[in-house]
Amino acid sequence: MSQEGYEKLVAELRRLESVERPAASAAIAEARDKGDLSENSEYEAAKEAQAHLESKINRLKMTIAEAKIVDTSRLSADCVQILSTVEMTNLTTGAKMTYTIVSENEADLRSGKISIKTPIAQGLLNKKVGDEVVITIPRGTIHLRIDKISVG
């Protein structure tokens, strides 16, 4: 993953631990103060929310622990790889598109960042400028030509 993606995950973990966790504990304490716990749906909901939060924190910690930060200065624009920005043309429609291939955690289609695990990214990996590829996607197949590859 990119250094930027890693830093976003660390910031999200800090926020969950320093803001969300205390808020969840406060919600449990407030619900507990409302009386009989056996019939207190607010208490049960607060406990369930806290369990989901702890699960999310643990998943984030695992992702951060296993993260491998890619040194973009060592990447080449010779062929498509993770952190490559690929400009391409859909040869069927003539539409131009640009995607950056990122780790699953950094994927954000609105920003043009697609996960390396998507069919399009998989079909583009190790291809060069000028290559034409046919990629099977859920809606059928697309025929793309790689026009430009850049890094960073």
What labels describe this entry?
alpha+beta; five-stranded mixed beta sheet
Which strand-content bin applies to the residues? 15-25%
Helix segment count? 3
String of helices and strands: HHEEEHEE
Shape category: elongated
The major beta sheet can be summarized as: 5 strands, mixed
Low-pLDDT windows of residues: none
Structure characterization notes:
41% of the residues lie in helices and 23% in strands. A hairpin with a 2-residue loop joins β4 and β5 (140-151). The protein is an alpha+beta fold and 152 residues long. The protein has three helices and five strands. A five-stranded mixed beta sheet has the order 3-2-1-5-4.
What's the topology here?
Elements: H1 3-32, H2 41-66, E1 84-90, E2 96-102, E3 113-115, H3 119-124, E4 132-137, E5 140-151
Parallel strand pairs: 2-3
Antiparallel strand pairs: 1-2, 1-5, 4-5
What is this structure, in a nutshell?
The chain is α+β, with helices and mostly antiparallel strands and 152 residues long. The protein has 3 helices and 5 strands.
